Amino acid sequence: MTSKELYEITVLSRGGQGGILGNKLLGKIAFVDGFKDIIAIPIIGAERRGAPIRAYLRISEQKLRRIDAVKEPDYYLILDETLLSYDYILSEIKDTTVIINTENGCSYKFPPGVIAYEVPATRIAIDLDLEVAGQPIVNVAMIGAFAKATGLIKLESIKKVVVDYFGAKGELNYEASAKAFELTREVKQDE
To answer: Coil, strand or helix: which one is 103?
Structure first.
């Protein structure tokens, strides 16, 4: 872990993928791993299943007092790669790290200063039968990818939180995060 005191994260997902819950769980995991203060900010409006959703998270070594939206996140967790087809989303990604749920390989051209990671979180969720109403739930797999890409949280802490939160399905969710940790890889971008 680096010596930075505050990390800001933006989670981009679609309704029904578990993005807001994943954001909250990531905050709990960061707290278990020793961060002193966490603020999870869901953006909830007239969303419906499949609609774009945004959530913000701040994890800090110090007491936090800000509750405004994250404007320049250190990390983006993108639970649905099709969200990158929206120009307004793609254009806001600068000088950050993105972690993308994709099986197709990251085909998006990011500006210099962006580090990209990819993970097949949907495939992991389908293979482990982590679905609700027929839709794969990728949030915990993406937390495992976040752990691999950032080094800010540990798999042991993910296990502790998800087993506590999900009860009987906790071990299966932890398995998804461990598999995502294993399969997450940095995407080399053409200069």
So the answer is: coil
Length of the chain: 191
CB atoms within 10 A of CB 176: 26
Domain assignment present for 143: yes
**Does residue 1 lie in a domain region?**
no
pTM: 0.92
**Cβ 144 vs Cβ 124: under 8 Å:** no
Contact 157, 98 (CB under 8 A): no
- What CATH number has the domain bearing residue 150? 3.40.920.10
How many angstroms from the chain centroid is the CA of residue 138?
A: 9
Radius of gyration, alpha carbons of the chain: 15
Model confidence band, residue 135 (pLDDT cutoffs 50, 70, 90):
confident
* Element at 40 (helix H, strand E): strand 37-43
Residue 123, domain member (yes or no): yes
